[in-house]
C-alpha cells in the first residue's frame, strides 16, 4: 500500500495544478490512499524563532502529514520565474524537522509549452537541499490548458487521465 501526500503550489480556487492533483487522487488504485494538502494559505511565514516546540499548529499538521506519507507529489505553478513564495515557505518549514529527508518525491509539471522551467528548476534545487529523493520515472510533464473538467473541477480529458494513471503505475511498480 502506498500513501501519497499531494501538494499543490497554487492557492487559487480554480487552480489547474490543484485540479491535476485532485484528478490524480480520483485515480487512486484500490488499496492505496492519498491526502490532498489544503493548508498552504494557513502556514505562517517561516521564522526560525518559531521553529521550536510548541510549533505553530499548521506547521505541526504539515509535518505530520508529510511523515505519514510514503511519497509526496508536487504540482507547482511558476510565479515570477520560480516557485510561488508560499510553496517555498512550506519547504522552509521542513528544513529543520527533516520531514522530506530521504522521502520519495515526484513533480507533475502542467505549465504550457515553453513555460515553467524556472519553477521546476527551483523545486528540484530545494528538494535536493532538503534531501528528498526525486523519483524521476514517476514525474510527468504535461499541459492542462484547455483540457475538459467535470463539475467537481477534476479533469475528464481521457489522455490526461491516462498520463496521471501512469504516475500511479510508476510509483507502485
Ligand atoms: C504573480 C504571478 C506570476 C506569474 N509568473 C509566471 C512566470 O514567471 N512564468 C510563467 O510561465 N507563468 C507565470 N504566471 C502564470 C501562472 O504560472 C499560470 O497562470 C499557472 O497556470 C497558474 O497555476 P494555477 O492554475 O494552478 O493557479 C504567473 C502568475 C501569477 C499570478
UniProtKB/TrEMBL annotation:
Residues 3-137 form the NADPH-dependent FMN reductase-like domain. InterPro entries: Flavoprotein-like_sf, FMN_Rdtase-like_dom, NAD(P)H-dep_reductase. It comes from the Bacteria. It holds the Pfam family FMN_red. This is NAD(P)H-dependent oxidoreductase.
Amino acid at each position: 500500500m502506498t500513501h501519497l501526500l499531494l501538494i499543490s503550489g497554487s492557492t487559487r480556487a480554480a487552480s489547474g495544478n490543484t485540479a491535476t492533483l485532485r484528478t490524480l487522487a480520483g485515480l487512486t488504485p484500490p488499496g492505496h490512499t492519498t491526502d490532498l494538502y489544503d493548508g498552504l494559505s494557513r502556514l505562517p511565514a517561516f521564522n526560525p524563532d518559531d521553529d521550536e516546540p510548541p510549533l505553530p499548529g499548521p506547521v505541526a499538521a504539515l509535518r505530520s502529514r508529510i511523515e505519514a506519507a510514503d511519497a509526496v507529489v508536487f504540482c507547482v505553478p511558476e510565479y515570477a520565474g520560480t516557485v510561488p513564495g508560499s510553496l517555498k515557505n512550506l519547504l522552509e518549514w521542513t528544513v529543520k524537522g527533516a520531514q522530506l529527508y530521504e522521502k520519495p518525491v515526484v513533480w507533475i509539471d502542467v505549465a504550457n509549452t515553453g513555460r515553467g522551467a524556472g519553477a521546476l528548476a527551483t523545486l528540484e534545487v530545494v528538494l535536493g537541499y532538503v534531501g528528498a529523493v526525486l523519483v524521476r520515472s514517476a514525474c510527468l510533464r504535461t499541459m492542462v490548458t484547455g483540457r475538459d473538467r467535470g463539475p467537481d473541477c477534476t479533469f475528464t480529458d481521457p489522455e490526461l487521465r491516462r498520463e496521471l494513471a501512469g504516475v500511479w503505475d510508476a510509483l507502485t511498480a
